[in-house]
Write a structure and sequence with these properties.
Length: 379
């Protein structure tokens, strides 16, 4: 039986993982869960799943939780979440914390030689080189949970890296790929994703296609593939989750219904496949697969994210921080949708690049960019 820790258990990935684990009580046991500030949901999960440990990032709310729950260890703050990430008895850590804050528990899990099901992309975006170096000194293993990276991971298994000609990441295109321009878009429209049910931040990132730019950087680090060998196409049906073209001209795709249950469970159960996760596709019922290029004028945020990845150094941390603050302000109704890439570009244009940043440099870049962009928005 695998002992599982779920960091970010009250988010969409975390909740899906808990429901999946319920189906396999003989195979998995949840021993630790964490949340940012959702006290009520975490309390419900503690009662239902009976973990040995729980953590709340919000220090005040963790004190309230300690009064409500007496029979398990309650941790708090980023140190508490990092402690969960390194639990000695845990067999696998599902890291589904949203945002750059996920860097800290990821590094803790790597230092503790853990198997990590990674559903946080921002950590790799801002500190990919540092994470790669830490992994070289650790027995830790990263298993991707993003549907696209899970697809690539499954496809390249058993093939040599030198045989890969290119990776083809697919993007749903979000709700606006058919729209002529991205002006006057409401928060409600941006959060109405046509295919996936996700958290607010990643849903907005999918609407701007910045998310796909982040995934390009993530693929670069996860699979040690140069940017020149990573292509992105819009695929509205979200049936082909990604493809790999090999040097002999063969293209192999991972195809399934658009449901995060498959990549989540594949990461948790790897190298075993669990039965009955998704229903089969019926190829005889008019299955349609469309593929289109990304429009540079309309989805400028995607190209900015990829540009930041190619520049490297401290630039991805700058780009990611600017995007997080811009998205937050859009959701709060303080800026328009088309201003998100504007603020990303502004931050990147004014950033003083550090070519080989330390962890401290990255954290400083992240913090300073957040403050700067928020000040710009506040006027």
């Amino acid at each position: 039986m695998k002992k599982v820790v779920i960091l970010g258990s009250t988010g969409s990935i975390g909740k899906s993982a808990l429901k999946l684990i319920e189906q396999f009580p003989d195979d998995f046991k949840v021993i630790g869960i964490s949340a940012n500030e959702n006290l009520d949901e975490l309390y419900y999960q503690i009662k239902k799943y009976k973990p040995l440990y729980a953590a709340l990032y919000d220090e005040k709310k963790s004190k309230i939780l300690r009064k409500k729950v007496k029979n398990i260890k309650i941790l708090s703050g980023i140190n508490g979440i990092c402690e969960l990430a390194a639990l000695k008895e845990a067999d696998i850590i599902l890291l589904s914390v949203v945002g750059s804050i996920g860097l800290f528990p990821l590094l803790s899990a790597i230092n503790a030689h853990k198997k990590i099901a990674l559903a946080n992309k921002e950590a790799l975006i801002i500190a990919g080189d540092i994470i790669k170096e830490r992994l070289k000194k650790s027995k830790a293993e990263i298993l991707p949970v993003d549907s696209e990276h899970s697809a690539i991971f499954q496809v390249i298994k058993g093939n040599l890296k030198k045989e890969i000609k290119k990776i083809i990441l697919t993007a749903s295109g979000g709700p606006f790929f058919k729209r002529k321009n991205l002006k006057n878009i409401t928060v409600r429209e941006a959060l109405n994703h046509p295919t996936w049910k996700m958290g607010k931040k990643i849903t907005v990132d999918s609407a701007t296609l910045v998310n796909k730019g982040l995934e390009v950087i993530e693929a670069h680090y996860l699979f040690d593939i140069p940017f020149e060998k990573i292509e992105v196409v819009i695929h509205p049906q979200s049936i082909v989750h990604s493809m790999v073209e090999f040097v002999d001209g063969a293209i192999i795709a991972q195809i399934s219904k658009p449901d995060m249950k498959l990549p989540i469970m594949y990461a948790l159960s790897y190298p075993v496949r669990m039965e009955g996760i998704l229903k089969s596709l019926d190829f005889t019922k008019g299955l349609k697969l469309d593929f289109k290029k990304i429009e540079a004028k309309k989805f400028h945020g995607f190209f900015l994210a990829v540009k930041a990845g190619k520049i490297g150094g401290s630039m991805p941390a700058c780009m990611n921080a600017a995007n997080e603050i811009a998205v937050k302000n859009f959701i709060e109704g303080k800026i328009s949708f088309d201003k998100i890439p504007y603020y990303i570009k502004k931050a990147m244009d004014e950033h003083k690049l550090i070519k080989n940043p330390t962890l401290e440099d990255i954290l400083k870049t992240d913090n300073e960019t957040r403050i700067k962009i928020q000040e710009m928005i506040n006027g």
